[in-house]
TrEMBL record:
Membrane-crossing residue ranges in chain numbering: none
Organism for this UniProt entry: Aegilops tauschii subsp. strangulata
Descriptive protein name: Anaphase-promoting complex subunit 4 WD40 domain-containing protein
Any Pfam family matching the protein: WD40
Domain of life according to the entry: Eukaryota
GO cellular component: COPI vesicle coat
InterPro entries xrefs: Coatomer_complex_subunit (IPR050844), WD40/YVTN_repeat-like_dom_sf (IPR015943), WD40_repeat_dom_sf (IPR036322), WD40_rpt (IPR001680)
PANTHER family with a match to the protein in the record: COATOMER (PTHR19876), COATOMER WD ASSOCIATED REGION DOMAIN-CONTAINING PROTEIN (PTHR19876:SF72)
């Protein structure tokens, strides 16, 4: 992660404790996935947004989902499907999204502001 921080700015980090992973969303619109089991090891990186930075991320506590936001985009990523974007909410709001979360009472519902 130190090398990553010198090249780009990390805007959001979330832990996926059941997998011993953490995800880092950066200023270049990329999400980086790391394993922290024995030592920190980069597993993969993928573009989550173009021309903007990752503003927020959330991990679903019961499913294999990570939610990301960048400017007006909200995307749902499924790590059990190779980090496929399974849903995009680009047209459903007009304000810049600064934070995303899963509803703790019903993790099928997402929240953003």
């Amino acid at each position: 992660l130190n090398n990553l921080a010198t090249l780009t700015v990390v805007h959001s980090v979330k832990v996926i404790s059941g997998k011993k992973w953490f995800v880092a969303g950066t200023s270049d619109g990329v999400i980086h996935v790391y394993n922290y089991d024995n030592r920190i090891q980069k597993l993969r990186s993928f573009r989550a947004a173009s021309d903007c930075f990752i503003t927020s991320m959330a991990v679903n506590p019961t499913r294999s989902y990570v939610l990301s936001s960048a400017y007006h985009d909200i995307k749902l990523w499924d790590w059990s499907k190779g980090w496929e974007c399974t849903k995009s909410f680009v047209q459903e709001h007009t304000d810049t999204v600064s934070q995303v979360a899963f509803n703790p009472m019903d993790t099928n519902i997402l929240c953003f502001r």
